[in-house]
Specification:
The chain is of the alpha/beta class. The chain is built from 3 helices and 4 strands, in the order ββααββα. The chain has helices spanning 29-38, 51-58, 85-96; strands spanning 5-11, 14-15, 63-69, 73-74. The strands form 2 sheets. Strands 1-3 form a two-stranded parallel ribbon.
Length: 99
C-alpha cells in the first residue's frame, strides 16, 4: 500500500528500569524525539537527518506526517520484539487515539 498524503504518527518513549545495560532517561526526551523526527541538522553539513526528511526524500515529497509524542511507558522486560504482545498493544493504544 502506498503512502500518499499526511498521516498521524505517535511515538512512545519506553523506559526499562531493569534493562542490562540500564536505560537512561534524557533530560528532554520528548524534545529529543521530536527533533530526530522533525528536524535534525548535521552539525558539519547542516543536512537534515530527521525521519521526516527521509520520508520526504523516499516518497519524492508525496508523504508527510504529523508527529505526537505520547507519555512514557515503563516496561519491566529486557526485550520486546516486533511480534511481542506488548508492542502490539502499544501500537493500537498509540495509533487508535489519532486516526
Amino acid at each position: 500500500m502506498a503512502w500518499l498524503g499526511r498521516k498521524k504518527i505517535a511515538f512512545i518513549p519506553v523506559f526499562r528500569p531493569n534493562a542490562h545495560p540500564p536505560d537512561a532517561i534524557p533530560a528532554d526526551w520528548n524534545g529529543d524525539i521530536l527533533r530526530r523526527v522533525l528536524f535534525d541538522p548535521d552539525k558539519r553539513s547542516g543536512a537534515d537527518r530527521s525521519l521526516g526528511a527521509y520520508i520526504q526524500a523516499a516518497s519524492s515529497g508525496l508523504a508527510h506526517f504529523d508527529a505526537v509524542v505520547l507519555p512514557m511507558v515503563v516496561i519491566d522486560q529486557q526485550d520486546f520484539g516486533h511480534d511481542s504482545t506488548i508492542r502490539i498493544q502499544f501500537w493500537f493504544a498509540g495509533f487508535g487515539r489519532f486516526r
